[in-house]
Amino acid sequence: MVIQILPSGQPRQCIQIRPMVEVERVPCSYLHEQGWVRKGDKVWEGWYRSIYGSFKGQIRYGKEQGQMGWHFYIEDPPTAVLAGSHRNCFVPRPNNKYWIHFSCRPKDLDSGLRETERVIRLGFEEAGRI
Question: 55 near 74, Cβ under 8 Å?
């Protein structure tokens, strides 16, 4: 903030304009930022994180429900999620794993991870309103 003195002798506050500084984008993906680890060419392992807890997950490349591509899984999802409005998005698989079905396929792994974490948070928020 700069103070300018007017001809009348009255001070006036002015904003000093500084040159713009370019901020570089962080090259780290959300997946890496959240600590997900790649296991070979076709598997990522990590945790879906929310303020309500962290839940073990996996992202695998392969065929699921006739679709080839990256597929998201969660182990032992919380009851709040399985009872919430997105319960049909969680399809049971062996060993307490659930395949996560998206109405629109995520464009990349980061957006799929973010969407899954959003749905987990939403499940807990809905459970709190019951």
Answer: yes
Confidence (pLDDT) at 14:
64
Tracing tokens 């392992």 back to the chain, one arrives at: 45
Nearest-angstrom CA–CA distance, 124 and 17: 46
Phi, psi of 59 (to 5 degrees): -125, 120
Per residue in 67-108, pLDDT tens? 899 999 999 999 999 999 999 999 999 999 999 999 888 999
d(CA 112, CA 72): 8
The two three-digit tokens of residue 61, written as one number: 């490349």
Q: How many angstroms separate the most distant Cα atoms in the chain? A: 81
Look up residue 125 and give its DSSP letter: H
**Encoded amino acid at 101, one letter:** H
Which residues fall within 8 angstroms of residue 106, CB to CB, at 6 or more apart? 70, 112, 115
CB 101 within 8 A of CB 88: yes
